[in-house]
Amino acid sequence: MPATIQSIEAMLVDIPTIRPHQLSMTTMAVQTMVIVRMKDSEGLEGVGEATTIGGLAYGPESPESVKLTIDTYFAPLLLGQAADNINTLRVRLDACTRGNNLAKSAIETALLDLQGKRLNRPVSDLLGGAVHQHLPVLWTLASGNTAKDIDEAHSLIAAKRHCDFKLKIGSRSLMDDVRHVAAIKSAVGDSASVRVDVNQAWDEATAARGMAELQAAGIDLVEQPTPMKDLAALVRLSEKFHLPILADEAVADAKDMFSLAAAGFAGAVALKIAKAGGPLRALEVARVADAAGIGLYGGTLLEGTIGSVAALHAWSTLDKIHWGTEMFGPLLMKDDIVVKRLNFHDNGVELPTGPGLGIEIDEDKLTYYRRK
Ligand code: MUC
Ligand code: MG
Q1: pLDDT in tens, 88-105
Q2: What value of ipTM does the predicted structure carry?
Q3: Out of 67, 168, 272, 275, which one is annotated catalytic?
Q4: Is the Cβ–Cβ distance between 310 and 115 less than 8 Å?
Q5: Is the predicted pLDDT of residue 82 greater than 90, yes or no?
Q6: CA angle 110, 288, 97 (to 5 degrees)
Q7: Bridge partner list, 8
Q8: Which strand (E) or helix (H) includes residue 143?
Q9: Where do the domains of the chain lie, and which CATH numbers do they carry?
Q10: Which residues line ligand 1 (CB under 6 A)?
Q11: How far is CA 272 from CA 114, 138, 175, 322, 358, in A?
Q12: Percent of the chain with pLDDT over 70
Protein backbone atom coordinates (compact mmCIF):
# COMPACT_ATOMS: atom_id res chain seq x y z
CA MET A 1 0.00 0.00 0.00
CA PRO A 2 1.56 3.33 -0.99
CA ALA A 3 1.52 6.18 1.53
CA THR A 4 -1.42 8.54 1.04
CA ILE A 5 -1.64 12.31 1.47
CA GLN A 6 -3.04 13.02 4.93
CA SER A 7 -2.87 16.80 5.29
CA ILE A 8 -1.95 19.93 3.32
CA GLU A 9 -1.44 23.22 5.09
CA ALA A 10 -0.73 26.51 3.27
CA MET A 11 0.43 29.48 5.34
CA LEU A 12 1.49 33.06 4.61
CA VAL A 13 4.92 34.06 5.89
CA ASP A 14 6.04 37.72 5.80
CA ILE A 15 9.74 38.60 6.07
CA PRO A 16 11.07 42.17 5.64
CA THR A 17 13.64 42.78 2.90
CA ILE A 18 17.17 44.02 3.75
CA ARG A 19 16.48 47.24 1.76
CA PRO A 20 13.70 48.51 -0.51
CA HIS A 21 13.73 46.52 -3.78
CA GLN A 22 12.54 48.76 -6.62
CA LEU A 23 11.06 47.30 -9.79
CA SER A 24 9.18 49.04 -12.63
CA MET A 25 5.79 48.03 -11.15
CA THR A 26 6.35 48.13 -7.37
CA THR A 27 8.84 48.69 -4.55
CA MET A 28 9.09 45.82 -2.07
CA ALA A 29 9.84 46.26 1.63
CA VAL A 30 8.60 42.84 2.64
CA GLN A 31 8.39 39.49 0.91
CA THR A 32 5.38 37.23 1.43
CA MET A 33 5.88 33.51 0.88
CA VAL A 34 3.18 30.87 0.80
CA ILE A 35 4.67 27.84 2.55
CA VAL A 36 3.02 24.45 2.00
CA ARG A 37 3.44 21.57 4.45
CA MET A 38 2.15 18.23 3.18
CA LYS A 39 2.06 15.14 5.43
CA ASP A 40 1.60 11.54 4.32
CA SER A 41 0.15 8.50 6.11
CA GLU A 42 3.64 7.35 7.15
CA GLY A 43 4.32 10.60 9.00
CA LEU A 44 6.73 12.04 6.40
CA GLU A 45 6.46 15.71 5.49
CA GLY A 46 7.15 17.50 2.20
CA VAL A 47 7.42 21.27 1.97
CA GLY A 48 6.87 23.64 -0.93
CA GLU A 49 6.72 27.37 -1.57
CA ALA A 50 4.79 29.72 -3.85
CA THR A 51 6.00 33.29 -3.90
CA THR A 52 5.36 36.26 -6.11
CA ILE A 53 6.38 39.93 -6.14
CA GLY A 54 4.32 42.78 -4.68
CA GLY A 55 0.94 41.09 -4.20
CA LEU A 56 -0.73 41.31 -7.62
CA ALA A 57 1.93 43.60 -9.12
CA TYR A 58 3.74 40.82 -10.99
CA GLY A 59 1.06 38.37 -12.09
CA PRO A 60 -2.53 37.22 -11.66
CA GLU A 61 -1.90 35.14 -8.48
CA SER A 62 -1.39 36.85 -5.12
CA PRO A 63 -0.11 35.12 -1.94
CA GLU A 64 -3.62 35.29 -0.51
CA SER A 65 -5.18 33.77 -3.66
CA VAL A 66 -2.57 30.99 -3.74
CA LYS A 67 -3.50 30.00 -0.17
CA LEU A 68 -7.20 30.08 -1.02
CA THR A 69 -6.65 27.99 -4.18
CA ILE A 70 -4.70 25.35 -2.28
CA ASP A 71 -7.08 25.21 0.72
CA THR A 72 -10.34 25.31 -1.22
CA TYR A 73 -9.63 23.61 -4.54
CA PHE A 74 -6.38 21.60 -4.53
CA ALA A 75 -6.46 19.99 -1.08
CA PRO A 76 -9.82 18.21 -1.60
CA LEU A 77 -8.48 16.75 -4.89
CA LEU A 78 -5.26 15.50 -3.28
CA LEU A 79 -6.18 14.32 0.23
CA GLY A 80 -6.36 10.51 0.51
CA GLN A 81 -4.57 10.02 -2.87
CA ALA A 82 -1.39 7.93 -3.20
CA ALA A 83 1.48 10.32 -2.58
CA ASP A 84 4.11 8.50 -4.64
CA ASN A 85 3.02 9.20 -8.22
CA ILE A 86 3.52 12.87 -8.98
CA ASN A 87 2.45 12.62 -12.63
CA THR A 88 -0.89 11.06 -11.69
CA LEU A 89 -1.54 13.82 -9.16
CA ARG A 90 -0.57 16.45 -11.73
CA VAL A 91 -3.03 15.04 -14.26
CA ARG A 92 -5.73 14.98 -11.55
CA LEU A 93 -5.14 18.63 -10.64
CA ASP A 94 -5.00 19.75 -14.28
CA ALA A 95 -8.21 17.90 -15.16
CA CYS A 96 -10.17 19.94 -12.60
CA THR A 97 -8.33 23.27 -12.33
CA ARG A 98 -6.92 25.74 -14.83
CA GLY A 99 -3.90 27.99 -14.47
CA ASN A 100 -2.77 28.86 -10.94
CA ASN A 101 0.77 27.77 -11.70
CA LEU A 102 2.26 29.34 -8.57
CA ALA A 103 -0.02 27.25 -6.37
CA LYS A 104 0.73 24.18 -8.51
CA SER A 105 4.46 24.81 -8.17
CA ALA A 106 4.23 24.74 -4.36
CA ILE A 107 2.28 21.47 -4.50
CA GLU A 108 4.67 19.84 -6.99
CA THR A 109 7.64 20.92 -4.86
CA ALA A 110 6.10 19.45 -1.69
CA LEU A 111 5.40 16.17 -3.52
CA LEU A 112 8.99 15.99 -4.79
CA ASP A 113 10.34 16.72 -1.29
CA LEU A 114 8.11 14.00 0.14
CA GLN A 115 9.12 11.50 -2.53
CA GLY A 116 12.81 12.29 -2.05
CA LYS A 117 12.50 11.77 1.71
CA ARG A 118 10.66 8.49 1.17
CA LEU A 119 13.34 7.20 -1.24
CA ASN A 120 16.20 8.81 0.69
CA ARG A 121 17.37 10.65 -2.46
CA PRO A 122 17.77 14.36 -3.22
CA VAL A 123 15.16 15.98 -5.47
CA SER A 124 17.82 16.45 -8.18
CA ASP A 125 18.10 12.63 -8.39
CA LEU A 126 14.36 12.38 -8.95
CA LEU A 127 14.84 14.84 -11.85
CA GLY A 128 17.55 12.70 -13.45
CA GLY A 129 20.60 13.69 -11.40
CA ALA A 130 22.62 16.85 -10.73
CA VAL A 131 25.27 17.86 -13.26
CA HIS A 132 26.35 20.81 -11.06
CA GLN A 133 26.78 21.07 -7.27
CA HIS A 134 27.65 24.80 -7.31
CA LEU A 135 25.60 27.18 -9.47
CA PRO A 136 26.39 30.79 -10.42
CA VAL A 137 24.06 33.39 -8.85
CA LEU A 138 23.71 37.05 -9.82
CA TRP A 139 22.44 39.89 -7.63
CA THR A 140 19.85 42.53 -8.45
CA LEU A 141 20.90 46.12 -7.72
CA ALA A 142 17.55 47.82 -7.12
CA SER A 143 17.87 50.21 -4.21
CA GLY A 144 16.54 52.97 -6.47
CA ASN A 145 19.73 55.02 -6.00
CA THR A 146 22.73 54.90 -8.38
CA ALA A 147 25.43 55.62 -5.77
CA LYS A 148 24.02 53.03 -3.34
CA ASP A 149 23.83 50.45 -6.13
CA ILE A 150 27.48 51.09 -7.05
CA ASP A 151 28.59 50.68 -3.40
CA GLU A 152 26.54 47.49 -3.13
CA ALA A 153 28.12 46.11 -6.33
CA HIS A 154 31.67 46.93 -5.21
CA SER A 155 31.30 45.24 -1.84
CA LEU A 156 29.67 42.12 -3.37
CA ILE A 157 32.43 41.84 -6.01
CA ALA A 158 35.11 42.21 -3.30
CA ALA A 159 33.46 39.50 -1.16
CA LYS A 160 33.18 37.25 -4.27
CA ARG A 161 29.51 36.87 -3.48
CA HIS A 162 28.39 37.96 -6.95
CA CYS A 163 30.07 39.01 -10.19
CA ASP A 164 26.96 39.42 -12.33
CA PHE A 165 24.31 42.09 -11.73
CA LYS A 166 20.81 42.81 -12.93
CA LEU A 167 19.41 46.33 -12.73
CA LYS A 168 15.69 46.96 -12.51
CA ILE A 169 14.67 49.76 -14.84
CA GLY A 170 11.55 51.10 -16.54
CA SER A 171 9.97 53.24 -13.82
CA ARG A 172 11.90 56.40 -14.79
CA SER A 173 12.32 58.19 -18.12
CA LEU A 174 14.36 56.27 -20.67
CA MET A 175 17.40 58.57 -20.53
CA ASP A 176 17.39 58.67 -16.70
CA ASP A 177 17.48 54.88 -16.75
CA VAL A 178 20.23 54.83 -19.38
CA ARG A 179 22.38 57.22 -17.31
CA HIS A 180 21.82 55.09 -14.18
CA VAL A 181 22.78 51.87 -16.00
CA ALA A 182 25.79 53.40 -17.78
CA ALA A 183 27.13 54.83 -14.49
CA ILE A 184 26.95 51.41 -12.81
CA LYS A 185 28.52 49.61 -15.78
CA SER A 186 31.38 52.09 -15.94
CA ALA A 187 31.95 51.80 -12.14
CA VAL A 188 32.22 47.99 -12.19
CA GLY A 189 33.97 47.76 -15.57
CA ASP A 190 34.82 44.40 -17.08
CA SER A 191 34.90 42.71 -13.67
CA ALA A 192 31.12 42.26 -13.81
CA SER A 193 28.39 41.40 -16.27
CA VAL A 194 25.59 43.97 -16.11
CA ARG A 195 22.10 43.16 -17.37
CA VAL A 196 18.79 45.03 -17.09
CA ASP A 197 15.20 43.95 -16.47
CA VAL A 198 12.50 46.31 -17.76
CA ASN A 199 9.57 44.16 -16.54
CA GLN A 200 7.44 45.03 -19.63
CA ALA A 201 7.56 48.81 -19.04
CA TRP A 202 8.50 49.95 -22.57
CA ASP A 203 6.54 50.09 -25.79
CA GLU A 204 8.38 48.82 -28.87
CA ALA A 205 9.64 52.23 -30.04
CA THR A 206 11.04 53.05 -26.58
CA ALA A 207 12.55 49.58 -26.40
CA ALA A 208 14.33 50.08 -29.75
CA ARG A 209 15.84 53.36 -28.54
CA GLY A 210 16.65 51.85 -25.15
CA MET A 211 18.34 48.78 -26.65
CA ALA A 212 20.56 50.96 -28.85
CA GLU A 213 21.67 53.03 -25.82
CA LEU A 214 22.18 49.96 -23.61
CA GLN A 215 24.16 48.17 -26.32
CA ALA A 216 26.49 51.19 -26.53
CA ALA A 217 26.85 51.21 -22.71
CA GLY A 218 28.18 47.62 -22.69
CA ILE A 219 25.11 45.91 -21.20
CA ASP A 220 25.01 42.14 -21.75
CA LEU A 221 21.29 41.27 -21.68
CA VAL A 222 17.91 43.05 -21.72
CA GLU A 223 15.08 41.25 -19.94
CA GLN A 224 11.43 41.55 -21.00
CA PRO A 225 11.57 45.09 -22.43
CA THR A 226 8.02 45.02 -23.84
CA PRO A 227 4.57 43.74 -22.70
CA MET A 228 4.37 39.99 -22.19
CA LYS A 229 1.69 39.29 -24.79
CA ASP A 230 3.46 41.26 -27.51
CA LEU A 231 5.48 38.35 -28.85
CA ALA A 232 5.95 39.99 -32.25
CA ALA A 233 7.73 42.97 -30.65
CA LEU A 234 10.16 40.65 -28.81
CA VAL A 235 10.86 38.83 -32.08
CA ARG A 236 11.45 42.07 -34.03
CA LEU A 237 13.73 43.50 -31.33
CA SER A 238 15.70 40.24 -31.14
CA GLU A 239 16.27 40.47 -34.92
CA LYS A 240 17.36 44.12 -34.78
CA PHE A 241 20.07 44.06 -32.07
CA HIS A 242 23.12 41.94 -31.20
CA LEU A 243 22.33 42.71 -27.57
CA PRO A 244 20.37 39.58 -26.57
CA ILE A 245 16.90 39.65 -25.04
CA LEU A 246 15.86 37.49 -22.10
CA ALA A 247 12.17 36.53 -22.29
CA ASP A 248 10.65 36.43 -18.81
CA GLU A 249 6.95 37.25 -18.37
CA ALA A 250 6.31 36.21 -22.03
CA VAL A 251 7.19 32.57 -21.30
CA ALA A 252 5.55 30.65 -18.47
CA ASP A 253 5.30 27.11 -19.80
CA ALA A 254 6.59 24.90 -22.60
CA LYS A 255 3.80 25.92 -25.01
CA ASP A 256 4.67 29.62 -24.55
CA MET A 257 8.30 28.76 -25.25
CA PHE A 258 7.34 26.88 -28.39
CA SER A 259 5.17 29.77 -29.66
CA LEU A 260 7.92 32.35 -29.12
CA ALA A 261 10.60 30.17 -30.70
CA ALA A 262 8.33 29.31 -33.65
CA ALA A 263 7.70 33.04 -34.18
CA GLY A 264 11.46 33.48 -34.76
CA PHE A 265 12.70 34.72 -31.37
CA ALA A 266 16.43 34.37 -30.74
CA GLY A 267 17.86 35.08 -27.30
CA ALA A 268 17.36 33.53 -23.88
CA VAL A 269 14.58 32.54 -21.49
CA ALA A 270 14.18 32.93 -17.73
CA LEU A 271 13.01 29.54 -16.43
CA LYS A 272 10.96 29.88 -13.24
CA ILE A 273 9.34 27.03 -11.35
CA ALA A 274 6.55 29.39 -10.25
CA LYS A 275 5.65 30.49 -13.79
CA ALA A 276 5.76 26.93 -15.15
CA GLY A 277 3.86 25.20 -12.32
CA GLY A 278 6.76 23.37 -10.66
CA PRO A 279 10.31 22.08 -11.16
CA LEU A 280 9.27 19.29 -13.55
CA ARG A 281 7.35 21.70 -15.75
CA ALA A 282 10.11 24.31 -15.72
CA LEU A 283 12.42 21.61 -17.08
CA GLU A 284 9.92 21.04 -19.92
CA VAL A 285 10.42 24.72 -20.87
CA ALA A 286 14.18 24.15 -20.83
CA ARG A 287 13.92 21.21 -23.26
CA VAL A 288 11.91 23.25 -25.79
CA ALA A 289 14.24 26.25 -25.46
CA ASP A 290 17.30 24.06 -25.85
CA ALA A 291 15.90 22.44 -28.98
CA ALA A 292 15.26 25.91 -30.44
CA GLY A 293 18.77 27.18 -29.62
CA ILE A 294 17.49 29.62 -26.98
CA GLY A 295 19.81 30.21 -24.01
CA LEU A 296 18.78 29.17 -20.50
CA TYR A 297 18.70 31.21 -17.31
CA GLY A 298 17.61 30.02 -13.86
CA GLY A 299 15.10 32.66 -12.79
CA THR A 300 13.37 33.56 -9.53
CA LEU A 301 10.22 35.26 -8.28
CA LEU A 302 12.29 36.18 -5.21
CA GLU A 303 11.39 33.01 -3.36
CA GLY A 304 12.85 32.22 0.03
CA THR A 305 15.06 29.21 0.69
CA ILE A 306 12.45 26.49 0.06
CA GLY A 307 11.42 27.76 -3.38
CA SER A 308 14.97 28.69 -4.33
CA VAL A 309 16.27 25.25 -3.40
CA ALA A 310 13.48 23.55 -5.38
CA ALA A 311 14.56 25.58 -8.41
CA LEU A 312 18.25 24.88 -7.80
CA HIS A 313 17.59 21.14 -7.84
CA ALA A 314 15.97 21.59 -11.27
CA TRP A 315 18.67 23.90 -12.69
CA SER A 316 21.41 21.57 -11.35
CA THR A 317 20.25 18.89 -13.81
CA LEU A 318 20.80 21.11 -16.87
CA ASP A 319 24.03 20.64 -18.78
CA LYS A 320 24.37 24.30 -19.79
CA ILE A 321 22.74 27.23 -17.99
CA HIS A 322 24.09 29.82 -20.43
CA TRP A 323 23.27 32.92 -18.36
CA GLY A 324 23.63 31.44 -14.86
CA THR A 325 20.93 31.89 -12.21
CA GLU A 326 19.44 34.53 -9.95
CA MET A 327 18.52 32.36 -6.96
CA PHE A 328 19.41 35.08 -4.46
CA GLY A 329 15.92 35.53 -2.93
CA PRO A 330 16.95 34.29 0.54
CA LEU A 331 19.68 36.96 0.65
CA LEU A 332 17.18 39.75 0.00
CA MET A 333 15.25 38.83 3.15
CA LYS A 334 16.33 39.86 6.63
CA ASP A 335 15.81 36.37 8.04
CA ASP A 336 14.96 32.81 7.07
CA ILE A 337 12.65 30.03 8.22
CA VAL A 338 15.11 27.16 7.69
CA VAL A 339 17.60 25.78 10.20
CA LYS A 340 20.60 25.88 7.84
CA ARG A 341 20.73 28.75 5.36
CA LEU A 342 22.07 28.27 1.84
CA ASN A 343 25.83 28.50 1.39
CA PHE A 344 26.57 31.37 -1.05
CA HIS A 345 30.25 31.62 -2.02
CA ASP A 346 32.49 32.11 -5.05
CA ASN A 347 29.78 34.00 -6.96
CA GLY A 348 27.36 31.15 -6.60
CA VAL A 349 25.55 28.79 -4.26
CA GLU A 350 25.96 25.17 -3.15
CA LEU A 351 23.19 22.74 -3.98
CA PRO A 352 22.01 21.34 -0.62
CA THR A 353 22.56 17.62 -0.09
CA GLY A 354 20.34 15.23 1.82
CA PRO A 355 17.01 13.61 1.06
CA GLY A 356 14.28 15.63 -0.66
CA LEU A 357 15.05 19.33 -0.93
CA GLY A 358 17.70 18.93 1.79
CA ILE A 359 16.29 21.64 4.06
CA GLU A 360 14.72 21.68 7.52
CA ILE A 361 12.15 24.20 8.78
CA ASP A 362 13.05 26.27 11.85
CA GLU A 363 9.77 25.96 13.76
CA ASP A 364 10.37 28.97 16.03
CA LYS A 365 11.13 31.26 13.09
CA LEU A 366 8.14 29.96 11.16
CA THR A 367 5.85 30.64 14.14
CA TYR A 368 7.33 34.13 14.47
CA TYR A 369 6.98 35.18 10.81
CA ARG A 370 3.75 33.33 10.00
CA ARG A 371 0.85 35.72 9.36
CA LYS A 372 -1.58 35.44 12.29
C1 MUC B 1 11.89 39.33 -12.44
O2 MUC B 1 11.08 39.92 -13.12
O3 MUC B 1 12.84 38.85 -13.01
C4 MUC B 1 14.03 38.46 -10.35
C5 MUC B 1 15.05 39.13 -9.74
C6 MUC B 1 14.52 40.31 -9.20
O7 MUC B 1 15.11 41.20 -8.60
O8 MUC B 1 13.20 40.37 -9.49
C9 MUC B 1 12.81 39.16 -10.08
C10 MUC B 1 11.68 39.20 -10.97
MG1 MG C 1 12.21 39.52 -15.00
Answers
A1: 999 999 999 999 999 999
A2: 0.98
A3: 168
A4: no
A5: yes
A6: 45
A7: 38
A8: none
A9: 5-125+363-369 (3.30.390.10), 129-350 (3.20.20.120)
A10: 53, 140, 142, 197, 199, 248, 299-302, 326
A11: 21, 15, 30, 15, 20
A12: 100
